[in-house]
Amino acid sequence: MTARAARSMSVRTPLTIALAWAIVYLPALGSRGLAASEGHRVLPAIEMLRSGDFVVPRLFGQIYLRKPPGMFWAIAASMSVLGETELAARFVSAFATLLAGLACAWFAHRWYAPLAARAPLSRASPALAAGLSFVLMPMLWAPGRSAEIESLHNLCVLVASLAILDASLMRNARPRTTISIALLAFLATAGAVLVKGPAGVPVLGAAVVGACAAQRSLVPLRRVSVVPPMLAGLALGAGVILWCWSRARETGEPIVLQGVSEFLWSLPRLGQTLLLPLAAWAMALPMSIALLFPLAPFASRDDLARDESAPARAVAWTILLALAIYVILGVHNPRYAMPAMCLVPMLVPYALLGRTLFMPLRARLATLCTLGSPGAFVGLVLVGAGAHIAIEVHRFRDDRDPAYTGRPAGLALGESLEQHARATNNMSDDSPLLIYADHAVEARPEVLWYASSVLERAHTPARVRWLPGLADANDLPAGAVLVLRADSASPELRARAARDPDAASHELWRGRVHEFELVALTTPSAVPSAE
User: Fold this and answer.
1) What are the φ and ψ backbone dihedral angles of 119, each rounded to 5 degrees?
2) How far apart are CA 201 and CA 191, in angstroms?
């Protein structure tokens, strides 16, 4: 494929993509309280902003290295502009989805310009088709509207893998373009590692091999000028993580970690692992239908030059090889295959443009998959996105389904703690109300954040601390508050009650969040302080 000086994308293309993105990802983005594991991403970022320490992540004072710091930094940057709000936290994921859609459009414009020139009867724009397919992909709606790490990680892996494929497919590229692509590969690879460690590396490796498989040659390896920058990006990301780890070790404090082994091979989940490719394909519907075209039987009989179909074949091989690697590693959750399936929108332009060049049966199938018109397909997906947002807003309102978010429980806990502090005259800055938690932080840390926000607004000094092993802790300060899990899945409250038979008499508050039941107790004033 020659790197021709194709005309620049029309300015209407990115504007249309941005408009579709805004319709899907911005409405009511900050209306819901934090939920699921959002608190584990957001609260370390808030502590970074308040403490000024951006090297050692902490969650309620406890060093927290279960995830690399990339997402914490991104949320902290967003909050430094938009404030410490749910909107600012989730805007990172939403904006990452927009950038990924624009990246798909840019690369599709480069790759499919020759094919678009040969398909005059098809008015589909490759750039617009790829960009809209990404931002309208139902698989991405939920992560793009939450403060989770998937969307930012998807962006980094997508850009790095597209840069690898571009370098292997495009010949005689301008030196400036070659440098730009290499820089993209370097920055995106480093970003992927800093956001989610090695989770996206299988896709990057699959991109290198996929380019060779698509062209049935090892020649692309000699043209992949981004492999050294990609390796440098891996080294940079790993180096930064090790630096944060060494700084954390220097403190001498305990560190909360998470190994990758729990996400890999598990005999009880063997069936899920073996079915991962099928589950990932279903997760990416309807856009993943395009995966059926590039490598279909008799595809070589289409009226397509080999170079014109090379990008689609390379993308398809990359997706399939990445899924195979995930299966070999024992990954069982299709959500972890999301970076591979994010490449699917790059196949949509091939399916649309090929409707006039495919064999008759495949051409009719491609037309059927778009409901006869790309515009009709986009309209239907937008209707689905609107329904998704309406259901999300209606179902997850705090007053309707308080079990979804910890905000109602946190606000109720905060009011109880404020009354307790006033009753005990614990209102001076010299003696803040001490609040300790362990399993409650593991389950839903946002409960404690919303509770502390109530105390802040009431000018009640308080300090929340994550204390692992709280149920068996000795020498707790007198009058401190313990927030414990009381549901049957956690032995925390039972273990604490065994140490303090009168624990029930010190109960201040009890509430539920999702399947978790939480209770707040106060330590008896007779217990001496460790300080």
Assistant:
1) -120, 65
2) 12
**DSSP per-residue string spanning 145-208:** TSS-SHHHHHHHHHHHHHHHHHHHH-BS--HHHHHHHHHHHHHHHHHHHHHHGGGGHHHHHHHH
Strand 433-437 with 62-64, pairing: unpaired
Residue-wise pLDDT tens digits, 227-274: 889 999 999 999 999 999 999 999 999 999 876 666 667 777 788 889
Cα 236 to Cα 190: distance, rounded to the nearest angstrom: 6
What is the average pLDDT across 176-183? 87
CB atoms within 10 A of CB 83: 9
Amino acid 427: pLDDT: 55
* Nearest 10 degrees: Cα torsion 361, 297, 280, 267: 140
Indicate if the alpha-carbon torsion angle 293, 299, 305, 306 is positive or negative: positive
Which phi and psi (to 5°) does residue 175 adopt? -55, -40
Candidates 54, 22, 35, 27; CA nearest to 147 is 35
Average pLDDT rounded to a whole number, residues 501-519 = 84
Q: CA-based angle 423:528:413, to the nearest 5?
A: 35
Neighbours of 74 (CB within 10 A): 24
Average pLDDT over residues 304-333: 87
Amino acid identity, position 113: A
Cis bond before residue 286 (omega within 30° of 0): yes
Residue type, 47: E
pLDDT of amino acid 163: 94
Both tokens of residue 526? 């007779």
**Is 0.85 topped by the overall pTM?**
yes
Neighbour tally for 317: CB within 10 Å: 22
